[in-house]
Amino acid sequence: MIEVRPHAPQTRSEPVPESPAPVAESPESSSRPPCPAPADFRAEVATYDRMAEHAIWEGPRYRMHYRVLGQGPPLILVPGIAATYRGYALMLNRLASQFRTVIFDYPGDHPDDGAKLGRITHDHIVDDLFGLIEHLNIGRAFLTGLSFGSTVVFRALHREPRRFPKAVVQGAFAHRRFSRAERMALSLGRHLPGQSSRLPWREQILAYNSKSHFPSIIEDRWPYYLEQNGLTPIAALAHRLDLVTRLDLRPILPEIRNPVLLLQGNEDRIVVRRYFDELNAALPAAEGVIMPLVGHQPHYTHAEALAQVTADWLLPCAPEGCPNEPKPAAGT
User: Fold this and answer.
1) Distance between terminal CA atoms of the chain?
2) What is the pLDDT of residues 124-178, one digit of tens each?
3) Which residues form the AB hydrolase-1 domain (predicted)?
């Protein structure tokens, strides 16, 4: 269903399959193959670790770990605020069949990366994205950013629009509101040692925000998500959250004229619908897709579908059809 707003970008509500489900057979459905079983997420991570190239770029602010997998047009994935590359492995494995995928770690994610977090601004993170692009000898590239990563994507699009033909963002925002209590918690968090797994009430908060979006058929992914989320160093997480509290990209949005696909989980409790609506209204060339029954972590819960919609939008089929699309029968 497509909802067209006057003088505004398009928004459509698109179903995203989350698990195989029995359906009543019809002449059409009886000829289709059954839905595959969900992928083994840990096995997909092992495959990614085996196939991807892992390297380090000695950047001006920190030693940036990055990984490259696949062949084709470059696609750089800018990750969320508290994640490891492993959380995106299934999505990247699927995208690597059509793209040369690149993912990188943020400053402070590794204890030996040399990052001086107090001196690193949001603009510096964007600078380092461009530094990595130059290091890899990439000319033009597609961008995809998830949650916090979307803010890096927006700044990059604004800075060098000709370099990026299209971008996809999910759970995106240009500005976030924080209460005084949240700001005080962030201030204290900067001084806590260790990883975010040590934070009080972390699992309860994550469960409230996201656990219901992990259906029983993929319930094994929930403990893995908790494990990977807990590996982010507290100081690095507090640093990025602090950057968000002082970030407001709303003034530059009307100047970003690149085509941008906005993906929003309709059940997202972390980045709620109003942020999507704000972006959809302000970005001149945005197309919005609302994903029913999806929360803030589709790279875990709907990774294959997320990869598919990303690839289809960045590299649409020619008017004569997709190479693997069955040809219509004669006379139809």
Assistant:
1) 24
2) 999 999 999 999 999 999 999 999 999 999 999 999 999 999 999 999 999 998 7
3) 73-302
Q: Which long-range contacts (CB under 8 A, 24 or more apart) does 206-212 make?
A: 208/269, 209/269, 209/270, 209/295, 209/296, 210/269, 210/270, 210/295, 210/296, 210/297, 212/267, 212/295
Residue 100 pairs with which residues in a beta bridge? 74
Q: What is the DSSP string of 187-228?
A: HHHTT--SBGGGSTTHHHHHHHHHGGGS-GGGTTHHHHHHHH
3 pairs with which residues across the strands? Answer: 11
Q: How many helices (H) and strands (E) does the chain have?
A: 11, 10
- Per DSSP, what are the bridge partners of residue 55? 66
pLDDT digits (tens, 9 = 90+) for 259-300: 999 999 999 999 999 999 999 999 999 999 999 999 999 999
Beta-strand ranges (E) seen in 27-166 are 53-58, 63-69, 74-78, 100-104, 142-146
The dihedrals phi and psi of 8, each to the nearest 5 degrees, come to -145, 160
Helix, strand or coil for residue 145?
strand
Burial of residue 135 (CB within 10 Å: 0-12, 13-18, 19+) is: middle
The yes or no reply on domain 2-14+39-177+246-314 and CATH 3.30.420.40 is no
Cα–Cα distance for residue pair 101/280, rounded to 1 Å: 26
- Domain boundaries of the chain, sorted by first residue: 2-14+39-177+246-314
